[in-house]
Structure formats: C-alpha cells, structure tokens
Design goal:
By secondary structure, the protein is α/β, with parallel strands linked by helices. The protein contains 5 helices and 6 strands; from the N terminus they run αααβαβββαββ. Strands 1, 2, 3, 4, 5 and 6 form a 6-stranded mixed sheet that branches.
Length: 190
C-alpha cells in the first residue's frame, strides 16, 4: 500500500504555509482538549510518597541498628550508600498494587550469610490494618570486599574487634507473598 497526498509541496516555504493555515483553522477548544486528557502531576501525592519513603528508610535503618548487637553480634555494620532508599522504593512499588498499600504490609527482615539465612526482625508499617501481603527482605553479606582487603595488611593491624565488622552487599532480595489471593507467591530479586 502506498500513501499519497494531493498537495504538491516543493519547498520549505510551502510547508510552513500549510502548517500556518492549519493552525489558523484550529480553535482554542482543540488545544484545550489536551488539558483535560493529560492529567497534571499531583505534587501533594509526590510529597506524601517521598515522606512515606523516608519513613520506611528510617524503619529499615532502625531495624538494622537494633539487630547489630542483638542478633548479628557485631560492633560495626557497614551498609552501602542508598541501599535502604532503594529497598524502600522497591517496597513502595510492590505495595502500590495492593488494596491497602503499604499499610497492609508486614516486612520480614533477614540476613543471608553463606548458606544460612538469619531472621533479624519484623516491620509492621501500620498495626491497625489487617495485613494483606508479606514481604521478605533478604540482605546479603558482602563476602568479597573485606577479606580480600585484609590480605594486603599484616595481621597486627586487625584486632579481634575488627573481625566483628559486618559489610552488607548492595544486592538484596524481596519476596512478596499475597495473603488473600489465589495468585500465590511473587518472587522478585533486586
């Protein structure tokens, strides 16, 4: 199939003349149509989502801080920059399709070290809402950076307290389980 035009346009001046004619025939209501079709961004919603994300980041950091001495038995816990922020954004994305959103979420926080997965804590964003889904967050220990770094220095540089430093990997895993659905478990690894 070949599309043809009845207009015979030979230069740029003719093209601009045709465009000008079409704009003169357009009425203001033709242009106003897109004001109603394309919604304006809701800045209040964007601010609320940012506040929710920051609140979730604080909850994750608090969970890691409490677990540092109680469950992990380490003196220092090194977390990659913006890791908790990335996790919070992914949690919000997964919660956005749920009927109660983040309010209906329980987050089980775990740490994977080698082949062992250790339970750290449970985060309930809103305890007044019946949970509709669970997220299992699995932090991963960074096994590669610290031991290889230690090989460059003599043993005298590292005391026994330095062995209790735990470094988290920038990777993590989120597993979503809907509690009231026939769809079952949705696994997403980040």
């Amino acid at each position: 199939m070949v599309a043809t035009s009845s207009l015979n346009i030979k230069n740029a001046a003719c093209i601009s003349e045709v465009i000008q004619q079409r704009f003169q025939h357009a009425t203001l209501t033709d242009f106003d149509y897109w004001d109603y079709v394309v919604p304006e961004p809701n800045f209040n919603e964007m601010v609320f989502e940012e506040q929710t994300c920051l609140s979730l980041v604080r909850m994750l950091e608090s969970c890691l801080s409490k677990s540092k001495q109680t469950k992990l038995h380490c003196s220092k816990l090194l977390v990659p920059e913006k890791l908790t922020r990335r996790i919070a954004q992914d949690v919000l994305r997964l919660a956005s399709t749920e009927p109660c959103g983040l309010r209906g979420c329980i987050i089980h926080v775990n740490l994977e070290t080698g082949n062992v997965c250790k339970k750290l804590d449970k985060i309930v964003y809103d305890s007044t809402v019946v949970p509709t889904f669970e997220l299992t967050l699995v932090f991963k220990q960074d096994c590669c950076s610290w031991p290889s770094f230690r090989d460059f220095f003599p043993r005298a540089c590292f005391t026994s307290s330095s062995k209790r430093t735990l470094i988290l990997s920038p990777g993590f895993r989120l597993i979503k389980k809907k509690l009231y659905s026939l769809m079952g478990t949705v696994v997403e690894e980040c």
